[in-house]
Amino acid sequence: MKKILICLSFMIPSVAFGCPSLEGTWSSSIEKFETFNKRWANIDNKAWSFMIQTQGHEVITFQSNTMMIIATPELELKMGERKIKRAPKEERININVLGCTDKNIVLKYERNGVVKISQLHFENDETFWEYMGVAGRSGNGHIREYYTKTQ
Hints:
- It is a single chain.
- By secondary structure, the protein is an alpha+beta fold.
- 23% of the residues lie in helices and 46% in strands.
- The chain has helices spanning 2-11, 15-18, 30-40, 45-54; strands spanning 24-28, 59-63, 67-72, 75-79, 82-86, 89-100, 104-111, 114-124, 127-132, 143-149.
- The strands form two sheets. An eight-stranded antiparallel beta barrel has the order 1-2-3-6-7-8-9-10. A two-stranded antiparallel ribbon has the order 4-5.
- A hairpin with a 2-residue loop joins strand 8 (114-124) and strand 9.
- It is globular and about 50 Å long.
- Residues 4-16 have low confidence and may be disordered.
């Protein structure tokens, strides 16, 4: 019986064996955002000024690969001479893991009334990134947002 179970474990692929772990709390990393995007992203100065104020604040907690809780604190953004306050926000979003490899996880979820698919790219157990923007549209400037595990 033991030999049969071992044989089956090689014959039947299992998502659990190869996926990176999402479980826990991840914080947006302003340092990693700046390091990558200053060098590689196609961002004009006005967009960069806005992004640098909004990155590094979001915290995502993943629970059991079925839910993510996204928390963003209140932000005061400077846009030219104007200052705009962005209210704090906490979102509870159901997620579905569509698939994974040992370095990627693909999620499907609905946020703000729009169904989204995101691919999370893991550099290691403590860091992942995802592209910002949408292919084929404005905002697709090879911009990455990075997250590091905090818990």
